[in-house]
């Protein structure tokens, strides 16, 4: 039974959620913030009621998709779930999810918690929730005005891992040397995942990497194979650090463009053939992280298969929206060079007539520094220039984006800038003809605006209705 103060925080948070949804705002972080101001220990009090504890997912790219994939597997296991599915991954948003999940009397009846958390927030989250495991997807340069150097981000996650209960586990990406290095100092159990198949990638680094140096000794890493960014098969000839052998690994990949992928995955339970409807090579990493977590949670193979094969992207993570007259919109979050490059790569692989709308904001949640636009490989759009029927930019820094696209070779007169996000989406949709796809590439707060605009235009439900 919660104390009167905790109950007051819970009820005020629930009231704020109801009011926000009543007026169409959704209620992601604000209600949790109210609850915490009244009762600072409310998240701890609610999270400790989870019957089987919580799994936390963090990292630069992929944490939303990984946590949603894992949530889909949990639901196919006939287990109940508390999950910050709106993607609000600071402590306020996570607290909102728990307040929403609790009964009016303050009970959490869920079996499991699946929590996506921001890298800077994870030490505090681990202190308050004490999860049974942490999944780390990757580390890339992102929001430098918040995090500073990338090493600070890695250090924050490393600090969180050291705060875990002794029985907890770290689920780490073996192919990212920054992530894998965390396993060296972690006192608990580590489960690594990675990709062994070399049908994708190259022997030479084709993209900018966040690091070419060993985090343990500072000497250059030697790579036998690159996938993207610094992810690949590596070793340090100076100190002996090398890619750990993953227990969960992909050994065969077939990419199918917008239709997703098929791959073979080897696990301690056997070798499985899986299909994924979520497009993009990098989403295979997200699926691997979800599989590794599900195995750690002892979820059945049948549920893992059903959860992944039935998973459909939403909330702007390669989200496909079917429109009338055979038209479609494709919504893909971009927020740093590596993630943006992979979105562009997926766009280029999908041939046919298309429209493009890039929406750039520089609010605090996006990161004030947008210089990363010049590091992202927008030049790789060149093969599909003949297929681009129109190009729009929008958002607070939409004019900067128009300039960036102009430098790729798109004539300035072919780029249409509209400051208002909803107006830009409406105009781009009106120009999209039957059989065409409108690709909408927003930064984080621009994604929230885009989803709200698509809802008002009748093309997407509210996130809590999805």
Automatic annotation (TrEMBL):
Mur ligase central domain location: 57-205
Binding annotation for Zn(2+): 214, 217, 236, 239
Record domain Lipid II isoglutaminyl synthase (glutamine-hydrolyzing) subunit MurT C-terminal: where: 333-447
Catalysed reactions listed for this entry: beta-D-GlcNAc-(1->4)-Mur2Ac(oyl-L-Ala-gamma-D-O-P-Glu-L-Lys-D-Ala-D-Ala)-di-trans,octa-cis-undecaprenyl diphosphate + NH4(+) = beta-D-GlcNAc-(1->4)-Mur2Ac(oyl-L-Ala-D-isoglutaminyl-L-Lys-D-Ala-D-Ala)-di-trans,octa-cis-undecaprenyl diphosphate + phosphate + H(+); beta-D-GlcNAc-(1->4)-Mur2Ac(oyl-L-Ala-gamma-D-Glu-L-Lys-D-Ala-D-Ala)-di-trans,octa-cis-undecaprenyl diphosphate + ATP = beta-D-GlcNAc-(1->4)-Mur2Ac(oyl-L-Ala-gamma-D-O-P-Glu-L-Lys-D-Ala-D-Ala)-di-trans,octa-cis-undecaprenyl diphosphate + ADP; beta-D-GlcNAc-(1->4)-Mur2Ac(oyl-L-Ala-gamma-D-Glu-L-Lys-D-Ala-D-Ala)-di-trans,octa-cis-undecaprenyl diphosphate + L-glutamine + ATP + H2O = beta-D-GlcNAc-(1->4)-Mur2Ac(oyl-L-Ala-D-isoglutaminyl-L-Lys-D-Ala-D-Ala)-di-trans,octa-cis-undecaprenyl diphosphate + L-glutamate + ADP + phosphate + H(+)
Listed Gene3D superfamilies: Mur-like, catalytic domain (3.40.1190.10)
BP terms from Gene Ontology: cell wall organization; peptidoglycan biosynthetic process; regulation of cell shape
Keywords attached to this entry: ATP-binding, Cell shape, Cell wall biogenesis/degradation, Ligase, Metal-binding, Nucleotide-binding, Peptidoglycan synthesis, Zinc
InterPro entries xrefs: Lipid_II_synth_MurT (IPR043703), Mur-like_cat_sf (IPR036565), Mur_ligase_cen (IPR013221), MurT_C (IPR013564)
Family annotation (SUPFAM superfamilies): MurD-like peptide ligases, catalytic domain
Active-site residues annotated for this sequence: 369
Enzyme nomenclature, EC number: 6.3.5.13
Pathway entry: Cell wall biogenesis; peptidoglycan biosynthesis
GO MF term list: acid-amino acid ligase activity; ATP binding; carbon-nitrogen ligase activity on lipid II; zinc ion binding
Subunit details: Forms a heterodimer with GatD.
Family: Belongs to the MurCDEF family. MurT subfamily.
Function: The lipid II isoglutaminyl synthase complex catalyzes the formation of alpha-D-isoglutamine in the cell wall lipid II stem peptide. The MurT subunit catalyzes the ATP-dependent amidation of D-glutamate residue of lipid II, converting it to an isoglutamine residue.
Protein name: Lipid II isoglutaminyl synthase (glutamine-hydrolyzing) subunit MurT
């Amino acid at each position: 039974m919660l104390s009167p103060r905790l109950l007051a925080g819970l009820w005020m948070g629930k009231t704020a959620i109801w009011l926000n949804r009543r007026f169409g705002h959704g209620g992601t972080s604000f209600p949790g913030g109210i609850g915490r101001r009244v009762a600072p220990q409310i998240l701890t009090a609610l999270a400790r009621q989870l019957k089987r504890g919580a799994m936390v997912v963090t990292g630069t790219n992929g944490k939303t998709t990984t946590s949603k994939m894992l949530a889909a597997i949990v639901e196919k296991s006939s287990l109940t779930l508390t999950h910050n599915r709106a993607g609000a991954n600071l402590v306020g948003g996570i607290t909102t999810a728990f307040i929403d999940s609790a009964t009016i009397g303050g009970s959490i009846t869920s079996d499991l918690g699946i929590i996506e958390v921001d890298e800077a927030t994870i030490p505090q989250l681990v202190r308050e929730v004490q999860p049974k495991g942490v999944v780390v997807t990757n580390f890339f340069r992102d929001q430098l005005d918040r995090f500073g150097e990338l090493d600070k981000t890695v250090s924050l996650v490393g600090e969180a891992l050291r705060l875990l209960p002794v029985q907890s586990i770290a689920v780490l990406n073996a192919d990212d040397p920054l992530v894998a290095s965390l396993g060296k100092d972690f006192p608990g159990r580590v489960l690594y995942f990675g990709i062994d198949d070399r049908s994708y990638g190259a022997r030479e680094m084709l993209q900018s990497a966040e690091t070419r140096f060993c985090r343990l000794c500072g000497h250059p890493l030697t790579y036998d194979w690159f996938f993207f960014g610094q992810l690949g098969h590596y070793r340090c000839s100076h100190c002996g650090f090398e890619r750990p052998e993953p227990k969960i690994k992909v050994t065969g990949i077939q990419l199918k463009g917008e239709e997703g992928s098929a791959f073979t995955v080897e696990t301690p339970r056997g070798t499985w053939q899986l299909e994924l409807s979520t497009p993009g090579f990098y989403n295979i990493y997200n699926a691997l992280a979800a599989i590794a977590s599900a195995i750690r949670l002892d979820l059945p193979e049948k549920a893992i298969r059903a959860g992944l094969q039935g998973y459909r992207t939403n909330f702007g993570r390669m989200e496909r929206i079917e429109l009338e007259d055979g038209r479609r919109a494709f919504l893909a979050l971009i927020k740093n060079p590596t993630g943006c490059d992979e979105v562009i790569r997926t766009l280029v692989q999908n041939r046919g007539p298309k429209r493009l709308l890039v929406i750039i904001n520089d609010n605090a949640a996006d990161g004030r520094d947008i210089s990363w636009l010049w590091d992202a490989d927008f030049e790789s759009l060149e093969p599909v220039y003949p297929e681009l029927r129109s190009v729009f930019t929008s958002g607070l820094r939409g004019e900067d984006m128009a300039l960036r696209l102009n430098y790729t070779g798109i004539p300035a007169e072919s780029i249409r800038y509209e400051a208002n996000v909803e107006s830009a989406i409406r105009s781009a949709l009106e120009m999209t003809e039957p059989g065409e796809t409108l690709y909408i590439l927003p930064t984080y707060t621009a994604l929230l605006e885009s989803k709200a605009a698509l809802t008002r235009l009748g093309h997407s439900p509210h996130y809590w209705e999805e």
